[in-house]
Design brief:
Strand order of the largest sheet: 1-2
Number of helices: 10
Radius of gyration: 22 Å
Number of strands: 4
Order of helices and strands: HHHHHHEEHHHHEE
Shape: globular
Distance between the termini: 25 Å
Length: about 220
């Protein structure tokens, strides 16, 4: 597991949150999210309490906002759907910011945004305070199937390789004058994505064949 990947996903520290066993943190995250998701969407005091607990945990873990905020962008698809929800939902209408929107849709959008934000922030806090190899070991302790743990280990190990290859392809495009500022150039981006997928698939096949030639047993052992 490369140091570049650790820098992107982990904030070193010696806080109690960092030192807690990975499998316990995974169970705590799962339980916390089940409670958040099961909370009625209009129970805003409960959501405020969940957010306060999460903020306190982030403060104790000393996770900087500069780490969390840029990574919260993974929530953008939820934000887009939540913005559209009041306009496409049915039911009684109300006025919000001068616009006529569905009242149930507005409540559902607010609940979606709140729950998604809490979930993403909690997951990022777990990633920031737990090394990737510790997470894999924790999943093993929780009796996750060995094959799934192996697949995730390879995914983490090779994500830097794929990212570096994508970076080289971008530099090659830009060195030929490509900027991707026009819709007509999206075809080039599509072909680049296809080439990256094929290369990643072929690399996975080579790794699989190399492991099998060394006696690897997919069931979890070695022959």
């Amino acid at each position: 597991m490369g140091p570049a990947h650790r820098r992107r996903t982990h904030v070193p520290g010696r806080t109690p949150v960092h030192r807690a066993p990975a499998h316990l943190k995974l169970l705590a995250l799962l339980g916390f999210m089940l409670v958040v998701v099961a909370t009625p969407r209009t129970a805003y005091p409960a959501f405020a309490a969940y957010a306060a607990v999460l903020v306190a945990l982030i403060v104790v873990a000393r996770v900087p906002l500069g780490f969390l905020l840029p990574r919260m962008l993974v929530e953008v698809p939820f934000v887009v759907f939540a913005v559209l929800l009041p306009f496409i939902a049915t039911g009684p209408t109300t006025t919000f910011l001068g616009l006529t929107v569905s009242e149930p849709g507005l409540e559902a959008a607010a609940a979606l945004l709140i729950k998604a934000t809490i979930g993403v922030a909690a997951s990022l806090t777990l990633a920031a305070t737990t090394e990737p190899h510790e997470l894999l070991a924790g999943l093993g302790r929780l009796r996750l199937p060995h094959e799934m743990v192996q697949i995730m280990a390879f995914m983490i190990r090779y994500v830097d390789v794929v990212a570096d290859e994508m970076h080289r392809m971008r530099i090659a495009r830009e060195s030929r004058g490509f900027r991707g500022s026009s819709i007509r150039q999206w075809g080039v981006l599509g072909r680049t994505a296809s080439a990256l997928f094929i290369r990643s698939y072929e690399r996975g096949e080579r790794v699989h064949l190399a492991m099998m030639s060394r006696g690897h047993d997919p069931s979890g052992g070695r022959s």
